[in-house]
TrEMBL record:
Source organism: Cavenderia fasciculata (Slime mold)
Pfam families listed in its UniProt record: CBM49 (PF09478)
Protein name, entry field: Carbohydrate binding domain-containing protein
GO MF term set: carbohydrate binding
SMART domains in UniProt: CBM49
Record's signal peptide: 1-25
Keyword Nucleotidyltransferase: no
InterPro entries for this protein: CBM_49 (IPR019028)
Domain Carbohydrate binding: 195-277
Keywords on record: Signal
Length: 286
């Protein structure tokens, strides 16, 4: 009788382990279908928010953008930034008498989550690779639940929830008290006069109390005729008169490409440094 009972327990344990293994190793078609919507998208970047929970109850939240992807890795969504993250037990907030206080998700406790772009990626088949900094480990797993823009996966020690978007999220830690709420960067505006503009954040920093960001903008002629003497208008504030490249200033807030003609389906890139981190908006002024 004892032998039979022991055998039953062993069988149950084997079934449980097999079930856990199958949950974590089975490719779900719905997950692959969602991921493939973002691979090779006309917008080169995917905005990703991610939340992790480990067995101790530590919660980590991060957001950033990922490349979607490239000729070398056509089946991937690959991270392009280090994904600044906040943690549920941050101790980077000075308390009374200089003592550190545990203050959940305090932005002064922001730390990088990954080493480089190869540390975080999705494959088109629904598999995920996550290599965390600070000795937190490397995790390879398959997504186990996917619906709309939400993807879920787990290992034996952590659970992961991802939210994908066609828009890019700003970096955590750039907010200050009194800032207006910042939505994710909007999708590029609908083409106006057969012209579209798409801007990509290259870097952001502060100099004292002043915040600046470096952007690259692509102008695309989506029509079938040559566009001459295009003028774009924007309400953004440049850092100074020397911080826009490959565009001439027509008048305050209005700019024209150095090359005056843009053929059908051709694109033109220019760069600039502006005040603030908000997404720059351009409209066709002529």
């Amino acid at each position: 009788m004892k032998s039979s009972s022991t055998s039953s327990i062993i069988l149950i344990l084997i079934l449980v382990l097999l079930n856990l293994y199958s949950i974590n190793s089975t490719y779900l078609p719905e997950c692959a279908e969602i991921i493939n919507k973002y691979i090779g998208n006309s917008a080169p970047y995917v905005g990703i928010q991610m939340t992790m929970v480990d067995q101790s109850g530590l919660v980590t939240y991060a957001r950033g953008r990922s490349l979607s992807c490239c000729q070398q890795y056509p089946d991937m969504i690959m991270g392009t930034m280090n994904y600044p993250a906040v943690f549920s037990n941050s101790t980077n907030c000075n308390g009374l008498n200089g003592a550190d206080l545990v203050q959940p998700f305090h932005v002064t406790g922001v730390r990088s989550l990954f080493y480089d772009r190869g540390s975080f990626y999705f494959r088109s088949n629904g598999s995920v690779q996550v290599s965390l900094v600070e000795g937190q480990g490397q995790y390879s797993f398959n997504l186990t639940y996917c619906k709309d823009k939400i993807l879920v996966g787990h290992t034996d020690s952590r659970s992961f929830v991802f939210h994908l978007s066609n828009v890019n999220w700003g970096s955590i830690g750039t907010e200050t008290c009194g800032d207006a709420p910042r939505p994710p960067f909007p999708n590029p505006a609908a083409p106006s006069n057969k012209v579209s503009t798409t801007s990509t954040l290259q870097a952001s920093w502060n100099e004292g109390s002043n915040y600046y960001s470096l952007w690259e903008t692509t102008i695309q002629n989506t029509g079938g005729v040559i566009i001459n003497n295009l003028v774009l208008a924007s309400t953004m504030q440049l850092k100074d008169a020397t911080t826009m490249w490959r565009m001439n200033t027509v008048s305050p807030g209005k700019y024209t490409p150095v090359d005056p003609s843009l053929g059908p389906n051709q694109s033109y890139k220019f760069s600039f440094i502006k005040v603030g981190h908000d997404y720059p908006i351009f409209t066709v002024a002529n």
